C-alpha cells in the first residue's frame, strides 16, 4: 500500500489558514517599516495592515512627502521677501500653525527669530555671537511686523515646527492610501495613527536629558502626536557655560527656564511648535497654559535636579523612571 507524507500538505493548510485568519482580523496585520536619513535626523516609519497599494510603495510615498518638505526648508532657515515666502509651497501652512503657537505661548514661539538664529553655530569650538550683532538682529524679530524697508528680506526659522509638520503630512498620506495604523518617528518627534496592533496603549519613552541612552519616563497613549524640545539636542560649551539652540526671542540668547519639554496633542506641527514655546516660557507658566488647552498634555523637566511635572491629564498614564 502506498504511504503518503502528510507533513507538507498539513503545513500548507496551516499557512493558508493563518493567511485567511490574518485577512479576517484573526491574526496580526502585516508590518512594513523603513528608516532614512532626512531632516538632519533618522526618520523611521512603520505601517500595519493593507492599503490601496503595497506596503513598500506606501512607505516610499510617505518618505517622499517628508523629502519634499526637507528640500524646501533645508536647515530650517528660509530667507526671502515676505510675500514670496508665504506663496511658497507649505510655508504658508507652516506659518498658520506658527501663528497659532505664537498666540498660545504669548510670543515665545516666534518663527521670525531667523535673523538671530543664523548668527549662532552649534558645534565643538563655537562661541556666542557678539552682543551688538544679536541686538541688531532682534530688530527684525516679531511675528506680524512688516519689513521696515520696502523689499527687505525676512528670515524665518521654522526649525521648531518643520519636523512635526512633515510627520503630519506624511501621516495624512499614509491614511489616504488606506492604512489605518502607523508610527512615524523623526528624531524623537512622533506621530501615531490608529490603534496599536494587538491592542492596548502605545508606550512611548521620554529620553533622559543628561544621560544618553537612558529614559526618564514613559507615556501610555493612543493615536496622537508627541514632540520634545530639549537643551541636549544641539549645544556647545564656551568658557564653562553651556549654550543650546532653543533661543528666547526676547533677548536672542538660549532660554534658561527648562531642560526638556514634551507636548502631546493631535497635530504634530502644533505640538512641535508648542514644545519650543513652552521650553522658553518655563514650567510654571507653561503648565498653566497647557492645562487650559483642550487636547494638549505636557511633561516638563527643569532645574539642576531634573524635576518632572506633568499636566493633570497624564496623572494615570505617565510613569517617571529616574
Draw up the topology in text.
Elements: H1 7-23, E1 31-38, E2 41-48, H2 55-73, E3 77-80, H3 82-87, H4 91-104, H5 114-117, H6 131-138, E4 154-157, H7 162-176, E5 181-186, E6 189-193, E7 202-207, E8 215-221, E9 225-230, E10 235-238, E11 241-244, E12 260-265, H8 268-281, H9 283-291, E13 297-302, E14 307-310, E15 318-320
Antiparallel strand pairs: 1-2, 2-5, 3-4, 5-6, 6-9, 7-8, 8-15, 9-12, 10-11, 12-13, 13-14
Helix pairs in contact: 2-7, 4-8, 7-8, 8-9
Description:
The protein has helices at residues 7-23, 55-73, 82-87, 91-104, 114-117, 131-138, 162-176, 268-281, 283-291, and strands at residues 31-38, 41-48, 77-80, 154-157, 181-186, 189-193, 202-207, 215-221, 225-230, 235-238, 241-244, 260-265, 297-302, 307-310, 318-320. The chain is an alpha+beta fold. The protein has a domain at 31-75 and 160-320: ApbE-like domains (T-fold). Strands 1-2-5-6-9-12-13-14 form an eight-stranded antiparallel beta sheet, with helices on one face. Strands 7-8-15 form a three-stranded antiparallel beta sheet, with no helix packed on it. Helix 4 packs across helix 8 (268-281) and helix 7 packs antiparallel against helix 8 (268-281). The N and C termini lie far apart (71 Å).
Amino acid at each position: 500500500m502506498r504511504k503518503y507524507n502528510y507533513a507538507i500538505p498539513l503545513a500548507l493548510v496551516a499557512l493558508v489558514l493563518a493567511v485567511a485568519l490574518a485577512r479576517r482580523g484573526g491574526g496580526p496585520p502585516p508590518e512594513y517599516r523603513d528608516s532614512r536619513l532626512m531632516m538632519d535626523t533618522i526618520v523611521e516609519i512603520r505601517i500595519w495592515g493593507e492599503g490601496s497599494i503595497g506596503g513598500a510603495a506606501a512607505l516610499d510615498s510617505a518618505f517622499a512627502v517628508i523629502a519634499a518638505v526637507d528640500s524646501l526648508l533645508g536647515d530650517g532657515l528660509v530667507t526671502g521677501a515676505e510675500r514670496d515666502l508665504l506663496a511658497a509651497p507649505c510655508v504658508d501652512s507652516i506659518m498658520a500653525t506658527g501663528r497659532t503657537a505664537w498666540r498660545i505661548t504669548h510670543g515665545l514661539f516666534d518663527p521670525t527669530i531667523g535673523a538671530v538664529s543664523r548668527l549662532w553655530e552649534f558645534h565643538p569650538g563655537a562661541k556666542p555671537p557678539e552682543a551688538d550683532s544679536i541686538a541688531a538682529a532682534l530688530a527684525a524679530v516679531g511675528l506680524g511686523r512688516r519689513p521696515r524697508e520696502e523689499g527687505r528680506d525676512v528670515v524665518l526659522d521654522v526649525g521648531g515646527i518643520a519636523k512635526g509638520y512633515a510627520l503630519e503630512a506624511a501621516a495624512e498620506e499614509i491614511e489616504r492610501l488606506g492604512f489605518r495604523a502607523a508610527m512615524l518617528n523623526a528624531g524623537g518627534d512622533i506621530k501615531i495613527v490608529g490603534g496599536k496592533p494587538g491592542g492596548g496603549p502605545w508606550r512611548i519613552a521620554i529620553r533622559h536629558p543628561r544621560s544618553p541612552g537612558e529614559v526618564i519616563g514613559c507615556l501610555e497613549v493612543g493615536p496622537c502626536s508627541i514632540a520634545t524640545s530639549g537643551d541636549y539636542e544641539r549645544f556647545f560649551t564656551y568658557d564653562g557655560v553651556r549654550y543650546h539652540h532653543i533661543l528666547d526671542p526676547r533677548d536672542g540668547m538660549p532660554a534658561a527656564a527648562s531642560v526638556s519639554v514634551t507636548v502631546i496633542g493631535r497635530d504634530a506641527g502644533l505640538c512641535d511648535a508648542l514644545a519650543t514655546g513652552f521650553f522658553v516660557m518655563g514650567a510654571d507658566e507653561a503648565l498653566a497654559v497647557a492645562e487650559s488647552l483642550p487636547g494638549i498634555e505636557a511633561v516638563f523637566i527643569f532645574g539642576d535636579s531634573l524635576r518632572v511635572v506633568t499636566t493633570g491629564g497624564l496623572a494615570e498614564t505617565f510613569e517617571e523612571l529616574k
